[in-house]
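Z., the sequence and structure:
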Amino acid sequence: LQLHHSGRYHCRGWVSAAVPQWKESELVTVIELKVPLSGVPLGVQCPRGQVALRDSLVLSCTVAMGTGSLSLSWHQEGSEVLLGSSLCLELQHVGDNDSSQYRCRVNDGDSVAESDPLNVTIM
């Protein structure tokens, strides 16, 4: 069941009793409620957000709850440049410029939820 299935429904059928005829049920209203986005945890594939120079860093984002079509984006502090749009972001051969805060942002078309910032330090 999805949001676009909301509406009024009934069923109709041919009843072949003593006098055959079409019968129709009462109308029923179906409303699909949307679950708002919540809980956007951010994980990292290195201890305490520290990674060695020229290594790879993998960040992952998950959404605890939400309905509808979700779009995800990755952002670095101080920049609106889109870093990625999948559940995982892999930064290969990290350098000094990659030391920063990272967030994932999830949008369901009606609302936006962001993870807490993750501080990453390149050693």
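The longest strand covers residues 100-107. The chain has no helices and twelve strands.

Let me know what you think.
H.
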